[in-house]
Design goal:
The chain is built from three helices and no strands. It is an all-alpha fold. α1 runs antiparallel to α2, α1 packs parallel to α3 and α2 runs antiparallel to α3.
Length: 98
């Protein structure tokens, strides 16, 4: 246990930060579980509607430093790839190339 006043304060701050980060990561895990449930059921419409809010939540979690940037990017990539696997190619929105 820390003895110096500044070390005690930093310990208190670290505990509060840890609880805040746990809250944000738990929200993210719940959203990812809902999304993956839709994917496993093969429900592309529900999964497509859940993808954007889930990716937005990943970005917010990264912004709040509760998740590292690379982990967030990897998560977003995996979520998108999962949807692309169950969605037929014709249903995907194509990006126009100019």
């Amino acid at each position: 246990m820390a003895n110096h006043k500044s070390a005690l304060k930093e310990h208190r701050r670290a505990q509060a930060r840890r609880l805040r980060h746990r809250h944000h990561r738990a929200r993210l895990r719940s959203a990812v579980k809902r999304y993956r449930q839709a994917i496993s059921e093969g429900d592309a419409d529900t999964a497509r509607s859940l993808l954007s809010p889930t990716i937005s939540l990943v970005d917010r979690t990264v912004k709040l430093n509760a998740l590292s940037g690379n982990t967030g990017d990897r998560t977003k990539s995996r979520l998108t790839r999962a949807l692309n696997r169950i969605e037929p190619t014709s249903a995907r929105t194509s990006i126009a190339t100019f």
